[in-house]
């Protein structure tokens, strides 16, 4: 299965099993979905997500997903991609359109 299919499968799972629909996601303001996606995406690289509540060098993991999936890099990236899709959808719903 290719990357885009894995991301789509994960987003579908989030909606159908976790019930993380746009109604749930609209509560994640200030880019929280995107920032958590970024934290997953950069885990294990030289990049880090800066946050005012963290000490220098401390890894960002608000949702606990980096730690939960620490041993599975592909899974981290699947979730990161799905969180980015959720953030796009959240912004589209905020605008009042699903079209973009």
Any overview of this molecule?
The chain is mainly alpha-helical and 100 residues long. The protein is 56% helix and 0% strand. Helix 3 runs antiparallel to helix 5. The termini are far apart.
As a percent range, the share of strand residues is under 5%
- Count of DSSP E strands? 0
Assign an overall shape. Answer: globular
The whole-angstrom Rg is 14 Å
Helix proportion of residues, in percent? Answer: 55-70%
- The ordered string of helix (H) and strand (E) elements is HHHHH
The class by helix and strand makeup works out as mainly alpha
Q: Any low-confidence stretches, pLDDT <50, length ≥5?
A: none
**Main beta sheet strand tally, sense and closure:** none
Give the N-to-C terminal Cα separation.
Answer: 28 Å
- Please give the count of helices: 5
SSE blueprint:
Layout: H1 3-16, H2 22-25, H3 32-42, H4 65-68, H5 73-95
Helix pairs in contact: 1-5, 3-5
Please summarize what this structure is.
The chain is mainly α. It is 56% helix and 0% strand.
Which short descriptors sum up this protein?
single chain, 100 residues, mainly alpha, 56% helix, globular
